[in-house]
Amino acid sequence: MSHYDFVVIGAGVIGASVAHHLAALGAKSVLVLERSTIGAGTTSQSSGLLRTHYSVKQNVELARSSWWAFNNFAEYVGDDEASCGLVKCGYMISAPDGGKIDPLRASLIAQQDMGIEVQLLDRTEARERLPIAQFDDAALIGYEPEAGFADAYLVATSFARAARRQGVKIMEGVSVTGVVREGRKVVGVQTSAGSFSCGALISTQNIWTPEMAAWMDVELPVKPERHTVLALECDTAAYSFKMPAFKDLGSAGMLYYRSYGGSQMLVSEGVVGETLNAPETEQGDISLDYVGEVGAQVAERFPAYETAGLASSWTGVYDVTPDWNPVLGSVSDIEGLVVGFGFSGHGFKLSPGVGKILAQHALGLPTDVSLGPYALSRFASGALLVGKYGAGAVS
Ligand SMILES: Cc1cc2nc3c(=O)[nH]c(=O)nc-3n(C[C@H](O)[C@H](O)[C@H](O)COP(=O)(O)OP(=O)(O)OC[C@H]3O[C@@H](n4cnc5c(N)ncnc54)[C@H](O)[C@@H]3O)c2cc1C
User: Fold this and answer.
1) Residue 365 DSSP symbol
2) Among residues 45, 76, 171, 204, which one has the fewest Cβ atoms lying within 10 Å of its Cβ?
3) 393 pLDDT band (50/70/90 cuts)?
4) In whole angstroms, what is the distance from residue 295 CA to residue 290 CA?
5) Ligand 1 centre from 216 Cα, in Å?
6) pLDDT for the residue 8
7) Location of each CATH 3.30.9.10 domain in the chain
8) Rounded distance, CA 216 to CA 212, Å?
9) pLDDT tens-digit readout, 246-277
10) How confident is the model at residue 363 (pLDDT cuts 50, 70, 90)?
């Protein structure tokens, strides 16, 4: 049986990032096992938004360190030709009078206290940045210039390429089918390509994490939740790359927006989606009623979009935990197992930072950001990781 010091299950953006960081931190023997192809899981469905705006402080820290990686990507992965497809358009977030004002204000102040550049805009300034929108109801508007969006698939494949360059072996088309244990210690994996022994196993299986739960007979709470993304085209009000990504806390669907391809609008809801019975990334049905419902909210904020056309649409699946924050670290008393799952629709922007701290933890090094708040045990103890917004993808 071949031996690797570290085996990573899954080559989504998180697993690929873990593999890169393990190698960058000095690990000499790393194997990544991916059932499909690199980045083909939920990573390929991501909207790609990058911001540090969160109300959970640890998420802000992880997003900030990750932003540095996105903003200096070629240097970060040590490849002059690497690109993450970053569009540095900034991120605007607004709330009308009501329940969202206090969490928004507190989160913006907390970001500023952490040294992150965040500006408060009045309605005129907001319109100057996003002239296709109206802000008549906006009571508080925040703007984060160092933000934008990037390409999650490109980031996953770039991390994987960087990992391979540093000696990591990545096997695609190989399913992990079980875990080899000696008592409570993980010592290897069974796969469709035979068994491998390992010193430590890192599971980044996203919506397929319940497989690991069954193999280890532990509870790893995560459910697959389908979300819909629409791309709208409006001849008279193009959403250009210069216009910021935008979060509308005043809309019923907590909609988020960004440019798509430099002229279309990408829009999606930030509320609870459709819970699936089993983990799968097949495309779901998108009804015309649904498009009409979201379209009406879009037109309230972007009046010219009253007559916009639907250019394309797709669905993607979130791995949602009970508090919409990830589980990172070890699993109870099991030795040799590290997990990173439950990104609940906001894992891409954290992927460099998460990959690094999971790699640090697996190597027995101090982590840049404490894993404590992300511990699995929080669900049993009731110390859920919830910020001022409550559970949700802004978190
Ligand atoms: C519609 C949508 C929009 C989003 N928008 C944003 C956004 O704007 N900003 C943001 O920050 N985040 C966003 N996200 C979230 C972000 O994209 C995800 O958190 C991130 O891509 C998850 O990466 P991952 O590596 O955990 O999962 P995945 O990419 O799903 O990778 C898991 C991999 O594990 C493999 N695997 C599982 N089990 C096994 C096994 N037994 N053997 C071998 N391989 C296995 C799978 O094949 C898969 O490739 C969005 C997600 C969706 C769906």
Assistant:
1) P
2) 171
3) low
4) 8
5) 22
6) 99
7) 91-145+223-320
8) 6
9) 999 999 999 999 999 999 999 999 999 999 99
10) very high
Which residues make Cβ contacts (< 8 Å) with residue 59, sequence separation at least 6? 325, 346, 350, 387, 395
Architecture of domain 2-65+152-222+322-381: 3-Layer(bba) Sandwich (3.50)
What distance in angstroms lies between residue 247's CA and the mean position of ligand 1's atoms?
22
pLDDT value for 260: 98
> From CA 125, how far away is CA 286, in angstroms rounded?
36
Q: What is the pLDDT of residues 322-362, one digit of tens each?
A: 999 999 999 989 999 999 999 999 999 999 999 999 999 99
Do residues 159 and 82 make contact, with C-beta atoms less than 8 angstroms apart? no
pLDDT tens digits, residue range 33-63? 999 999 999 999 999 999 999 999 999 999 9
Residue 392 in contact with ligand 1 by CB distance below 6 A:
no
The answer to whether the CB of 152 is under 6 A from ligand 1 is yes
- Measure 225 CA to ligand 1 centroid, in angstroms: 12
Written as six digits, the tokens of 334 are 């099991």
The CATH 3.50.50.60 domain(s) of the chain lie at 2-65+152-222+322-381
Give the type of residue at 198: C
Say if ligand 1 is within 6 A of residue 204 CB.
Answer: yes
pLDDT at residue number 43: 98
* Cα-to-centroid distance, 51 and ligand 1 (Å): 18
Alpha-carbon dihedral 365, 368, 372, 376, rounded to 10 degrees: -80
pLDDT greater than 90 at residue 287: yes
Does the domain spanning 91-145+223-320 belong to CATH 3.40.50.300? no
- What would the two tokens of residue 243 be? 């216009």
32 close to ligand 1 (CB < 6 Angstrom): no
> Which band of pLDDT confidence, cut at 50, 70 and 90, is reported for residue 200?
very high
Distance 15 CA to ligand 1 centre (A): 9
SS3 state of residue 229: strand
Q: Do 43 and 13 contact (CB within 8 A), yes or no?
A: yes
Q: How far is the CA of 237 from the centre of ligand 1 (A)?
A: 32
45 in contact with ligand 1, CB cutoff 6 A: yes
- Ligand 1 atom 3: residue of nearest CA: 46
Average pLDDT of the chain, as a whole number: 97
| Of 338, 328, 333, 375, residue with least CA distance to 202 | 338
